[in-house]
Amino acid sequence: MSWPLAFSTLGCSGLPLADVVELARSTGWLGLELRAADDEPVHVGLSPEERVAARALLESGGVTVLAVASYVKVARGEIGDDECVADALAHADLARDLGAPFVRVFPGAEEPGADADARAVRRLNAIAERLPEGVAVLLETHDSHPQGVDIARVLSQVSGDVGTIWDVMHPWRTGEPISVTKDVLAPYLRHVQVKDVLSPTERTPLPLGDGTIPLAEFYAALRELGYQGWMSLEWESKWHPEAVPLADALKVKPDFA
Question: Superkingdom, according to UniProt (predicted)?
C-alpha cells in the first residue's frame, strides 16, 4: 500500500503560491499543507478577494490543499480561552475559504500536566462547536504533548470534528514505540507527517531514509491501521537553514516497500 504525497510549505517559507504550485507539479508531491503566518502568502489577514484569488490559483494548478497549518496553541496558559478559540476559528475560516479540510493546531503548554490538558480539552470543545462546515481541527503530536498517549488523553475528552496529525518524529524522539503511538492514535488519526533526522537530539532534516527514524515500521503501522490519507513531508528548513533545499528533498520518495 502506498499513499499520495504532500509537503508542507514550511520547507519553502515565503515562496509565492504560484511557485509552490509549480514545485508540487514538477515533483509529483501534489498535496499541500499551507503554513499560515505573517511571512507567508497565506495568513488570516488575507482579504476576501485575496482568498478567492489564492484558491483559484491552487485549484487551477491541480494541487490538493490539505491543511492550513496554524500556530494556535490550545494548551498554552499565557493566553485566555476566548483569544485562543477566536484565533483557531479565524484559521478554520481561512481553511474553508481555501478549500482545505483541516486546520492544524499545537498543544503548546508551558508545562505539561492536568491544567494543560484541561485547557486543551476546554478550548478544543469550544472550537469544535463553531467550526465552519467541512473543516476539522487537528491536534499535532508536538511540543508539550509529543506522544500519542498525550494526544489521546486530551482527545478522549473532546467531541466534534477534532482529530490528530501524527508527526512521526516527536513520539519517536521522546521514546514512545511506534506500536504504542499507532494504537492510541487509531481513533483520531486524520493526517500524517513524515521526516527523517540523525537522532532524537540532532534534528536537522535529512532526505527520507538517510536518518534513524524507523520509517519502515511507521509505514507498516499505517498499513495496519488502514490509513487512507496523504503522506506529507514536513521539511523544517525554516528552523534548520543548513538543510538542503526542499526541492532536493522532494527528489527522494518514501520507500513504502
Answer: Bacteria
Q: Which of 212, 208, 207 is nearest to 173 (CA)?
A: 212
Tens of pLDDT, residue by residue over 14-27, are 999 999 999 999 99
Measured between alpha carbons, how far is 196 from 203 in angstroms, rounded to an integer? 8
Asked if 103 and 71 count as a contact pair (C-beta separation under 8 A), the reply is no
Nearest to 124 by CA among 167, 153, 94: 153
Asked if residue 58 belongs to a domain, the reply is: yes
User: Would residue 238 count as lying in a domain?
Assistant: yes
- Counting the structural domains of the chain, the total is 1
Q: Residue 107 belongs to what domain range?
A: 5-249
The pTM (predicted TM-score) of the whole model is 0.97
Q: What is the mean pLDDT of residues 192-209?
A: 98
CA distance 60 to 55: 8
Tens digit of each residue's pLDDT (9 = 90 or more) over 112-123:
999 999 999 999
Q: Does residue 201 fall inside a structural domain?
A: yes
pLDDT-based confidence at residue 1 (cuts at 50, 70, 90): confident
Return d(Cα 173, Cα 195) in angstroms, integer: 12
Q: Is residue 158 part of a domain?
A: yes
Distance separating alpha carbons of residues 80 and 224, to the nearest angstrom: 40
Cell representation of residue 172: 519517536
Closest of 131, 217, 135, 206 to residue 171, by C-alpha: 217
DSSP code of 134? Answer: T
pLDDT in tens, 235-246: 999 999 999 999
